[in-house]
Amino acid sequence: MKNITLPTLIIWGKFDGIIPFPMATQALNSLGTVSSQKSIAQLPHSSHVGYYEEPELFVAAVGQFIEAYK
User: Fold this and answer.
1) CA angle (60 as vertex; 69, 47 as ends), nearest 5
2) Domain limits of the chain?
């Protein structure tokens, strides 16, 4: 993942029982992207399928990311 240097958004459910939330930070830190261009959006009431469980928050996070880097 260190070879990934593009702006990156990681979206993760707080209650993900398949891949626990602390792994989001590990994933973020393993990216080669500069710190100012990578972030995590935590979905506070979701598990592993946040796009389904909290679609409004998911779409908002993606929209903000796209607007920032278009």
Assistant:
1) 115
2) 8-69
